[in-house]
Model the fold of this input.
Amino acid sequence: MYRLGIIEESIDNEDILCGLTPYFVSQRIENVSEDECPVWHVNEYQVAEDKIKDVADRLKQHIKETWYCHAFSDERLLVVLKGKWFEISLIRDETWDEMIEYGAVHANVERRYLETIPLHI
Done:
């Protein structure tokens, strides 16, 4: 089972979130006054291992540039960026390098965020 976190404001099509309704667990609201979106709606989903790659394929098409979302299981971390997703080690190692480079160069995500992806939602 993967725990998936998505900030609603990071998605360009609400229909994608509607398609995730069966996996929905909870939502919390965060005030992020320094961000261009000062209120974040952070959704948590639980997605089975056999479904997570299909979900990632849909999300990569609708996550906005400069954002990412992530999911994790007991064994793997999955990071979704604009146009591509990566399945990498839970612990920062060389498997992260390609994801960080792609995210910084092609998805315009600040490198510092990609270097420290948390294992919580």
